[in-house]
Amino acid sequence: MSGVETLSAINSRPTAVIIADQLRERIIDGSFGPGDQINEAQVAAQLNVSRGPVREGLHRLVQEGLLLSRPNRGVFVRDLTARDVAEVYEAREVIECAAAEVITRRALDARRRTVERLTPIIDRMTPYADARDWRGLGRIDLEFHTTLVEEAGNTRLVRAYSTLATEALICMSHADETYPDPDRVDADHREIASLLRDGDMTAVHLALHRHLSLDNHQLHDHDDDGDLRHGRPEERAAPVRAGSG
């Protein structure tokens, strides 16, 4: 079955947002693979809509970085390279640390409420980790991290994080190396939650760095003296492709 055939008809009033959401899900689950062309006319026919909202929906996904528009050729699913994966995880760390800065400055009762939101999400991860169900685990994992960012109460951080979360889901769905140690999924997330409750921002940053650093994909590191920094030189990024091995 081709990617287009996995789309379902839109029975209610069609909108570009609904179309973009459907296409995004089909990219995440692999119905549309890296490099696949998404044909505007075929999508419109499958969804029984005009080409206008389809064109707008595709444009939304181009803006999100999930699709590439090639003049005179069409729109194609972006193939995430090793550098793309590294950039996604580096940017996630920066945004999550910014959110954690806000959370850790709050009073203990407020930090406890944040942990109360995060803990049930962690509890749901274990069966997926045990089954090595990367797709299911990835969605719950991203729910944890998205909730962490939401807890800062900064809509700009949430908006910036949403596209990164989608790209991270694609990485998780198609490359189990994004979970370098799946047996530590539960422990790592509980550690992050515990450190948020304690209000120890330095420890939170180090925990997030360890959690979001992928073997052979890392663009930045921390200095040997423990100073926190970002922006490791590009030439030190490993020249491997996401999902290889």
From TrEMBL:
Start and end residues of each stretch annotated as Disordered: 217-245
Domain HTH gntR-type residues, every copy: 13-80
Molecular function GO labels: DNA binding; DNA-binding transcription factor activity
Keywords: DNA-binding, Transcription, Transcription regulation
Family matches, as Gene3D superfamilies: GntR ligand-binding domain-like, Winged helix-like DNA-binding domain superfamily/Winged helix DNA-binding domain
Pfam family, one: FCD
Keyword check for Transcription regulation: yes
Domain of life: Bacteria
Biased segments, Basic and acidic residues type: 217-238
UniProt cross-references to PANTHER family, sorted A to Z: GLUCONATE OPERON TRANSCRIPTIONAL REPRESSOR (PTHR43537:SF24), TRANSCRIPTIONAL REGULATOR, GNTR FAMILY (PTHR43537)
Protein name: GntR family transcriptional regulator
